[in-house]
Design brief:
oxidoreductase, alpha/beta, BDH-like, methylglyoxal reductase (NADPH) (acetol producing) activity, two-stranded antiparallel ribbon, about 10% strand, 8 strands, six-stranded parallel β-sheet, 15 helices, butanol dehydrogenase (NAD+) activity
Length: about 400
């Protein structure tokens, strides 16, 4: 196990109706003039915004509204939020919605006190030091941004929309309210998409070259088992509160840093996904769903026992100690069956991409790296490896379907 530092200051309030207590939380954190930053998912919940406003009003707080979108925030959105906080002299931000809304609030909170361009944080020129206090109310079973120190934004580079991420303790919300009831109205496709994001994040921690990390192995496996068991329940009954509650908590645990304690984390899946999303303007979760089995198949021989352990402990596949590669392959097959059951894409055609220029994808991906550099840490991926993974994702065919 590696050395590590860990601290999370985010106070979590979980359960039914907890958003009605938000006024006292903001007041406890010293807020007086509050920016309500919310996306469309907050407005479709019956009376949610009204209840939040009443709670703030009972606490004697002023509030100002700034609606936004539920997609990955852009620089322009952040500039508007920073200007709003400065002009109105606000001292607290309350983000209401999905992870994208919370990420936007993180950038706004850090940029308000910075005299330069907040983009300096994402371009590597500066580190954020001070930020406005931030609270979050989660409305979906999403990726867990409410307890994560990571913020993801988009920007246009040579006419292509690209993602940029930054990790900083200053991005951590002071508190987060998680009420699974707020996610009951979420479309099933959005719930499945958010689940894939959770799974991808845990897999990036689970497949590691760091030895002797049994405790966090167990944590990762428990979260993945929960996902595999819970998502089909939600698809069968979208109003299953307990299933939604377990999935929402899984998202928080996946992103609060605990799965990565003392172990090397591999970010190759996200890098591969971002190239597809940027080039073809696709949903990140759809690209991850397609890439996860392809990446696992490519990495199988690197550590057959770890892949076989995944199959055994997450999907209950009998361990073939004489031929562990059989167990490993069966685990990937079970993963694909799970994705099929949940109507998740498994190849580019499922995403609506009938033609994909893999050579261009790889060329663009490698152009962002120094010469001779690779991506990933569990298995270091060069251009040839990336091409193989993309090709696997492109050419996969569902066994139960007929293809012309």
């Amino acid at each position: 196990m590696q050395n590590f530092d860990y601290q999370r200051r985010t106070f979590l309030m979980f359960g039914r109706g907890r958003e009605n207590e938000v006024g006292s939380l903001v007041k406890f954190e010293g807020g007086r003039r509050v920016l309500l930053h919310y996306g469309p998912s907050a407005k479709i919940r019956p009376d949610l915004l009204d209840r939040i406003k009443r709670s703030l009003d009972r606490a004697g707080l002023e509030f100002f509204e700034l609606p936004t979108v539920d997609t990955t925030p852009s620089r322009e959105q952040i500039y508007r939020g920073i200007d709003c906080c400065r002009q109105l002299q606000l001292d607290f931000i309350l983000a209401i919605g999905r992870s994208a809304v919370i990420d936007a609030a993180k950038a706004i909170s850090a940029g308000t006190f910075y005299s330069g361009d907040f983009w300096d944080f994402f371009s590597g020129r500066r580190e954020p030091v001070h930020s406005l206090p931030l609270g979050a109310i989660v409305t979906t079973t999403d990726m867990g941004s409410e307890s994560s120190s990571v913020c993801i934004l988009t920007d246009q580079v040579n006419g292509v929309c690209r993602k940029f991420s930054k990790s900083s303790p200053t991005f951590l919300p002071r508190f987060a309210i998680l009420n699974p009831e707020l996610s009951l109205n979420s479309p099933l496709e959005n719930t499945a998409a958010g689940t894939i994001n959770i799974l991808a994040h845990v897999l990036s921690c689970y497949f590691t070259n760091t030895p002797n990390v049994q405790l966090t192995d167990e944590l990762c496996e428990g979260i993945m088992r929960t996902i595999v068991n819970i998502l089909p329940r939600i698809i069968e009954d979208p109003n299953d509160y307990d299933a939604r509650a377990n999935l929402m908590l899984a998202g928080t645990l996946a992103q609060n840093g605990m799965c990565a304690l003392g172990r090397e984390v591999d970010h190759a899946l996200n890098i591969l996904e971002m190239e597809i999303s940027a080039r073809y303007n696709t949903a990140p979760d759809a690209a991850l769903s397609v890439l996860i089995p392809a990446w696992m198949s490519f990495c199988l021989q690197h550590n057959v026992m770890q892949m076989a352990k995944f199959a055994n402990r997450v999907f209950g596949v009998d361990f073939n100690f004489s031929h562990p590669e059989i167990t490993a392959h069966t685990g990937i097959h079970k993963l694909r069956q799970f994705m099929e059951q949940c109507s998740l894409p498994q190849n580019f055609a499922d995403m609506g991409l009938m033609e994909v220029d893999i050579h261009e994808l790889v060329t663009n991906l490698m152009s962002h790296l120094p010469p001779q550099q690779t991506i990933g840490s569990y298995v270091k991926l060069d251009a040839s490896a990336c091409e193989t993974i993309y090709t696997t994702a492109y050419t996969y065919r569902h066994p139960q379907r007929n293809y012309p």
